[in-house]
From TrEMBL:
Protein name: Pimeloyl-[acyl-carrier protein] methyl ester esterase
UniProt organism field: Microbacterium terrae
Gene name tied to this protein: bioH
Coiled-coil intervals, chain numbering: none
EC number: 3.1.1.85
Gene3D superfamilies per record: alpha/beta hydrolase
Keyword Magnesium in annotation: no
Tagged with keyword Hydrolase: yes
Phylogenetic placement of the source organism: Bacteria, Bacillati, Actinomycetota, Actinomycetes, Micrococcales
Length: 313
């Protein structure tokens, strides 16, 4: 795949691939400096103030939402979570919901002018719940995509951990595309997988290609560094907490209307969804024909559903 003119050059092709008619929105890269000099990065789509803000899952980046936002047809903001995309890595490796929510809240406060329809998938969903609980002034409605605190971290999520395990750098992006396709990831075609790899990797000064997100580098360091292994074990305890009661506590504290969207082939089982309903009886639960990355597997369905939510339906 040839290098694009800019990171939004793919949008017309994505719209055509998905059969989305109409003008393609303008795109803009935003950057905000956080305390300590770290940066938070995001993509803004459209010329009006954002109505919908999107948070992606672990190992992804803001561009995972491109086609969903095209289908949505509304001004939107998609944020690179810390440690992902063009946002800075965290030295404390605190990639769990509450620390991430504190960073993301600063971005939403700076880049929007009204409470948002906040949509988060996987890690982004848990982060969105923590943010909605802590900053209700920023959230009009919460949509959590294919994650609940009850999801078994040793079930579906192991595929993602296995995918990112291994070398931290590669000779070419084509090698990463081959790996994505071998794991059944990337959207089903080599062209789509190449597009995803382009946004999720960078070429270093020495010509080697590396993942942008911190997780692959942490996994490699852990294998050869006992101190890093100990830190990672502590981080896994924190993840277990988020996938346990602390995650449920965040959801219980959310005052905004809440919807869970699960992929019928995703990580959230029917039992998980039933537990979600038991704990949050006023919330809605919907199922779409998709795997865990609903925004990539069923972007038209998801975009249409979110458009109705944004209109207050």
């Amino acid at each position: 795949m040839s290098e694009p003119v800019d990171e939004f050059s793919f949008l017309p092709e994505q719209a055509a691939d998905a059969g989305i008619a109409g003008p393609v929105p303008t795109g803009e890269r935003l950057t905000l400096t956080l305390d300590g000099g770290r940066t938070l990065s995001a993509l803004r789509y459209g010329d009006a103030p954002p109505l919908v803000t999107f948070l992606h899952g672990a190992g992804l980046n803001a561009h995972t939402w491109d086609t969903t936002i095209l289908a949505l047809g509304l001004a939107a903001l998609a944020i690179d979570l810390p440690g992902h995309g063009d946002s800075s890595w965290r030295d404390d490796m605190a990639y769990t919901a509450r620390p991430l929510a504190a960073d993301v809240a600063e971005g939403i406060a700076a880049w929007t002018d009204r409470p948002q329809l906040l949509v988060g998938q996987s890690l982004g969903g848990l982060t969105a719940a923590a943010l909605a609980a802590a900053r209700p002034d920023l959230v009009r409605e919460l949509v959590v995509v294919d994650i609940t605190p009850g999801v078994d971290p040793n079930a579906g999520p192991t595929q993602i951990r296995d995918f990112f395990a291994g070398p931290t750098d590669w000779a070419t992006r084509d090698e990463l595309v081959d790996r994505a396709l071998a794991f059944g990831l990337g959207g089903g075609t080599r062209r789509k997988a190449a597009r995803g790899v382009y946004f999720n990797s960078r070429v270093r000064p020495d010509g080697r290609v590396e993942w942008k997100h911190h997780f692959a580098h942490l996994a490699n360091t852990t294998a050869s560094n006992p101190a890093a292994a100990e830190a990672t074990a502590a981080q896994q305890d924190a993840v277990a907490s988020v996938l346990g009661e602390s995650g449920w506590d965040d959801l219980a504290a959310v005052t905004a209307p809440t919807t869970l969207i699960r992929g019928e082939r995703g990580y959230v089982t029917e039992a998980d969804a039933a537990e979600f309903t038991r704990r949050l009886p006023t919330a809605s639960v919907l199922t779409l024909p998709a795997g865990h990355n609903v925004q990539e597997d069923a972007p038209l369905d998801l975009g249409a559903l979110l458009a109705r939510r944004a209109d207050g339906e």
